[in-house]
Design goal:
Helix 1 runs parallel beside helix 7. The two termini are 31 Å apart. This protein has two domains: 181 residues, FAD/NAD(P)-binding domain (3-Layer(bba) Sandwich), CATH 3.50.50; 126 residues, FAD/NAD(P)-binding domain. A hairpin with a 4-residue loop joins strand 7 and strand 8. It is 26% helix and 26% strand. By secondary structure, it is an alpha/beta fold. The strands form seven sheets. The chain has a five-stranded parallel β-sheet, covered by helices on one side. Strands 13-12-11-17 form a four-stranded parallel β-sheet. A three-stranded antiparallel β-sheet has the order 6-7-8. The structure holds flavin-adenine dinucleotide.
């Protein structure tokens, strides 16, 4: 009997689980073995990090066992990847073992790099993962008024409108808590507007005005002074805070750099449509791990998983139609007043921003349910 083809997926986040599940639906377990290697036994639906600090959702509904989310025919292995040898087609693991592969999908996302921003550690609070979102929830419960600065780093952050959404939800939370009058909210953005496109900047500025949030654009944070409780920009501007909520700087995983596969920031350069690495037709990267110049969104992870699974399954003899990634990035942004609006872009079209509406707000509140029962399962 011929040996089974071995498909190795590195990373057990949104993109890794989705691609593994899609592959398992397209390829018979008789011809291929699909294995996911990752470090997260519990899978957190990251967009809910925006809801948890404001008590808009209990975290139990945003969390599932990673093994439970994978189809039965996919093998899940908990270990840390420490190196990849593309010539030998071998991945080395922290446990001291090795895994060989015929097809490789790198989907190890990003990691925080607080060391690249002097003063960030200890001072910056955030909501990018469950632990930090819960910590922020506790801090906000005890907050009794003062200056809150909400900021984004220069680059590399996931879902670009996150700081904007946070400041709008924060205004409404502080009002409910009865301490809004004693508080000031300032939003610092490294860009000249919050959202891409002229329509987007008009909508976002109106929303911020409506929520009495001060906007400081082109504010590229250079350092944070714990002593003076201030954020200092690259141009020398200062912003004082009592509480600093700042998305941490991110970078790609160190082992990719050490293996000579990534750029100097740890991100993998891939073909923008087919997501394969250099001239290799058996090595791909998807999700936040790529160096693609598109916003890092979950929607992109799912579209990229679709493109890569179609290619691998066709290589293994399926007649599933070939799909490619067209730069699609999409998210719903909270707009306040129980409304949300869609933002969409791809390689061909400039960003499109929809009008705030109540329906999208409800969709956004229920996104995790759709994700867990349908999207991450590869359907
Ligand atoms: C607050 C917030 C709100 C968001 N809102 C939206 C939204 O509304 N819409 C939208 O589309 N997107 C949104 N996003 C973006 C979306 O969540 C991310 O793009 C997506 O989760 C990235 O998934 P990933 O699998 O590529 O990376 P990750 O989620 O980072 O997963 C990578 C996985 O790889 C594992 N790993 C890392 N290193 C190793 C190693 N060496 N060995 C083994 N395993 C390893 C990790 O444990 C992790 O499980 C949001 C993100 C955040 C933080």
């Amino acid at each position: 009997m011929a040996e089974k083809n071995k498909i190795l997926v590195l990373g057990d986040g949104m993109s890794g689980l989705t691609v593994a599940n899609k592959l398992s639906l397209l390829i018979s377990h008789k011809i291929a073995e699909i294995k996911v290697i990752g470090l997260s036994p519990r899978h957190f639906f990251r967009p809910d990090g925006l809801l948890i600090p404001f008590n808009m959702k209990g975290y139990h509904k945003s969390l599932k066992s990673t093994a439970f989310l994978l189809h039965n025919s996919v093998t899940y292995m908990r270990d840390e990847v420490v190196g990849i040898d593309l010539e030998q087609r071998i991945v080395s693991l922290k446990s001291g073992t090795f895994e060989s592969f015929d097809n490789l999908v790198i989907s190890t996302g990003t990691t925080y790099s607080p060391e690249t921003l002097p003063g960030y550690e200890g001072e910056g609070k955030h909501f990018d993962d469950l632990q930090h979102a819960l910590e922020l929830k506790n801090i906000l419960e005890k907050f009794n008024g003062g200056n809150i600065v909400v900021a984004s780093p220069d680059s590399g952050n996931q879902c670009p409108p996150n700081a904007f959404q946070f400041s709008v939800l924060l205004d409404e939370y502080l009002k409910r808590k009865g301490v809004r009058e004693k508080s000031k909210i300032s939003l610092l953005t490294p860009f000249d507007s919050i959202l891409p496109s002229t329509g987007g900047s008009k909508i976002s500025e109106e929303i911020l005005n409506d929520h009495n949030v001060e906007l400081l654009s082109n504010f590229r944070v250079n350092s944070i002074s714990e002593k003076n409780h201030e954020v200092v920009s690259k141009n020398g501007e200062h912003a004082n805070y009592g509480l600093l909520v700042m998305i941490p700087p991110h970078r790609g995983q160190r082992f990719l750099l050490d293996s000579g596969i990534s750029n100097e920031s740890g991100y993998v350069n891939v073909d923008k449509y087919y997501l394969n690495y250099k001239d290799r037709k058996d090595v791909f990267a998807i999700g936040d791990a790529t160096a693609l110049n598109t916003p890092k969104t979950g929607y992109s992870c799912i579209k990229q998983a679709e493109a890569v699974s179609s290619q691998i399954s066709r290589d293994l003899g399926s007649d599933y139609p070939l799909s490619r990634y067209n730069g699609e990035a999409n998210c719903l942004s909270f707009a306040g007043n129980k409304m949300a609006f869609p933002i969409y872009e791809d390689y061909e079209s400039t960003p499109k921003i929809g009008n705030p509406n109540k329906f999208d707000f409800l969709v956004k509140l229920m996104e995790a349910d759709t994700y867990f029962s349908y999207l991450v399962r590869g359907m």
